[in-house]
Automatic annotation (TrEMBL):
One of its GO terms (biological process) is cell wall organization. It is an enzyme of class 2 (transferase). This is histidine kinase. Its EC number is 2.7.13.3. The lineage of its organism: Bacteria, Bacillati, Bacillota, Bacilli, Bacillales. It comes from Planococcus maritimus. One of its GO terms (cellular component) is plasma membrane.
């Protein structure tokens, strides 16, 4: 009995393991069994058939040798169709001929009937629910064993009434494993369907966020342009007033162009010349630009420059933009003023820029959503600035990490790989 259980477990392992292996290593989004990678799964099921035949087990009596080769044959025919079924039949037939024995011709004929008949049931199998699938594969397995039983009776005179208990156990054994295998594949396919549906939903949600952000941001400058053009059409303004309106129109058009440029930065690689940047010099330039903005809002900039002579690779203009976006957000997070600490740190193979404020802070959920399109902690914000910042840093092979606590402030860390001179 112990040897029988060991052999049965081995056969089950030979059948289940290739399916799990395929699921683990198949390309995400292309795991539809026998559709995306029929060749791979045919090879794996062929290996299952060979291993089951090479390592059979005695079933209840020492005179009865059994294996589960028909399980991958039945499942392969239902999911793979005629071509896969034919290949599996050839593999099993060659293996059975190599083994030989009195029951060889019955076994090959049985395998031929399975390979030829089961693919015709595939359309029906694909339409029914999972429980009817279980009934169908169980029925196919039972019919296959009944054929063997009656063929043995008519050809070799095997006494059915003496072996009916063994045959019933065989039917339950093989039928149960066939159901388990089919339901496992159905479960994996369902998981893959849910995964693909989630990916499509996320893509559509991103598109909707982008559409909302674009329409929201572009509507304001377009409405202003439209209003000034209508005024110029209806009224005769002095030349000075007309020039003022025209300048306002140009400013609004420029704002719309900058918005479009920001979206292009997010969608495409950083444009401009990628060159060696001295981070300390670039940071000094940004601090010089942002100091008046911070002073006007009663924010004190405290700079710790450190010693960073090693360059990084990036686009100077876009690097400035990324730093300006974060510094501006940090300043705006302190409506009553405070201190904004900026530190440059060199460690090992990387260069870090730390930006820490004493502002309102964020929850963990808000931190996790930073960089998403159309997510902002500001009442009139769209999240576009940080979205572009994350994109710029990523395109420079850098990383952004954020630590924040409500009421105590936020710390941004921009880490870039250091270039060796």
């Amino acid at each position: 009995m112990e040897a029988m259980m060991t052999g049965m477990i081995n056969n089950i392992f030979f059948i289940i393991f290739p399916i799990i292996l395929y699921q683990m290593f198949a390309t995400a989004g292309q795991r539809n069994f026998f559709v995306s990678h029929r060749t791979t799964m045919t090879v794996l099921f062929s290996i299952s058939i060979i291993l089951c035949m090479v390592f059979p087990y005695q079933f209840l009596t020492e005179d009865y040798i059994f294996d589960l080769r028909q399980v991958p044959m039945i499942v392969g025919a239902l999911y793979g169709g005629p071509i896969v079924s034919a290949v599996l039949f050839i593999v099993s037939a060659v293996g059975r001929i190599a083994i030989g024995g009195d029951g060889m011709y019955i076994a090959i004929l049985n395998q031929l009937l399975v390979a030829a008949g089961v693919p015709f049931l595939a359309p029906l199998y694909s339409r029914v629910n999972r429980w009817w699938k279980a009934v169908l594969v169980f029925s196919i397995s039972i019919l296959s064993l009944l054929f063997n039983m009656f063929a043995g009776y008519f050809i070799f005179g095997d006494p059915i009434h003496n072996l009916i208990g063994i045959w019933l156990m065989l039917m339950l054994n093989q039928g149960g494993i066939t159901i388990l295998t089919a339901l496992l594949i159905e479960h994996l396919q369902k998981q893959e369907y849910l995964y693909n549906s989630l990916m499509r939903h996320e893509k559509m949600e991103t598109v909707s966020h982008f559409a909302a952000a674009v329409s929201h941001e572009l509507r304001n400058p377009l409405q202003s342009v439209k209003g000034f053009v209508q005024l110029l059409q209806v009224y005769e303004y002095p030349r000075a007033k007309q020039l003022e309106f025209q300048q306002t129109i140009l400013d609004e058009i420029k704002a719309a162009e900058e918005l479009i440029d920001d979206y292009l930065i997010y969608a495409k690689p950083v444009y401009g010349e990628m060159k060696h940047l001295e981070v300390e010099a670039e940071l000094s330039h940004v601090i010089k630009i942002m100091s008046p903005y911070a002073n006007a809002r009663n924010v004190e900039l405290l700079v710790k420059r450190g010693n960073s002579l090693s360059p990084i690779l990036g686009d100077s203009q876009k690097f400035h933009q990324a730093l300006v976006n974060i510094i501006r957000n940090s300043v705006e997070a302190m409506p009553d003023g405070g201190k904004l600490e900026i530190e440059l740190e060199t460690s090992g193979s990387s260069i870090c820029v730390h930006i820490q404020d004493e502002g309102v802070g964020m929850t963990k959920e808000q931190v996790n959503r930073l960089g998403e399109p159309y997510f902002s902690n500001k009442s009139k914000g769209t999240g576009l600035g940080l979205m572009v910042t994350y994109s710029i840093v990523d395109q420079m092979s850098g990383e952004i990490s954020v630590q924040s606590e409500l009421g105590k402030g936020t710390r941004f860390t921009l880490e870039f790989p250091k270039l060796t001179k």
